[in-house]
Write a structure and sequence with these properties.
heterodimer, A: four-stranded antiparallel β-sheet, B: mainly beta
């Protein structure tokens, strides 16, 4: 089994760009798709990035995903930050018959 | 429109049994996996398991194997998560979500276990 490690929290100002990392402990990051979920307080998670870098319909193009094989990590980048982007963000991937979530990153937009 | 609608909040006592539900609509229920995710108060997301309603193929997280049962009734497009004997530590929000990539999520079912 593997672990996905995310920073506990990040903060940035409105209008700026922030990147949240997700590092896979074993196995290659590219071998299974990585998804990213946004969870606002009191709400269910929603998908902002699927299959490494696909944006579901309705997700602003300010959100983008990528993977870096050299660091065995995935990243979620949010540009032009808005106060409404303040939320918890989780990465997720799978390996065989097992799903794994990262621990989550709290994004503060101040 | 794809929707996953979960059953309402439950308050139970330790030792009681419980079955919560997740009804899918707007897509072919039998052709997509449905997974369950736990979120304990103030904590992150934990994958519990997943079922393919078409043939009831079910996979469990090692952490939840033997602790819960996942099932589905494709005739009514509904997946279930059940406990035979609840513990206080089962107090959490439970979400269902579609596919291994969790592209659509239910609204969550809050389960509170308290004596």
């Amino acid at each position: 089994n593997f672990i996905l490690t995310q920073p506990h929290s990040v903060s940035e100002s409105p209008g700026k760009t922030v990147t949240i990392s997700c590092t896979r402990s074993s196995g290659t990051i590219a071998s299974n798709f990585v998804q990213w979920y946004q969870q606002r307080p009191g709400s269910a998670p929603t998908t902002v990035i699927s299959e490494h870098n696909r944006r579901p319909s309705g997700v602003p193009d300010r959100f983008s995903g990528s993977i870096d094989s050299s660091s065995n990590s995935a990243s979620l980048t949010i540009s032009g930050l808005k106060t409404e982007d303040e939320a918890d963000y989780y990465c997720q991937s799978y390996d065989g018959s097992n799903q794994v979530f990262g621990g989550g990153t709290k994004l503060t937009v101040l | 429109e794809v929707q996953l609608v979960q059953s309402g909040a439950e308050v139970k006592k330790p030792g009681e049994s419980l079955k919560i539900s997740c009804k899918g609509s707007g897509y072919s229920f039998t052709n997509y996996w449905i997974g369950w995710v736990r979120q304990m108060p103030g904590k992150g997301l934990e994958w519990m398991g997943i079922i393919y309603p078409g043939d009831s193929d079910t996979r469990y997280s090692p952490s939840f194997q033997g602790q819960v049962t996942i099932s589905a009734d494709k005739s009514i497009s509904t997946a279930y998560l059940q406990w035979s004997s609840l513990q206080a530590s089962d107090t959490a929000m439970y979400y269902c979500a579609r596919q291994w990539s969790f592209d659509y999520w239910g609204q969550g079912s809050l389960v509170t276990v308290s004596s």
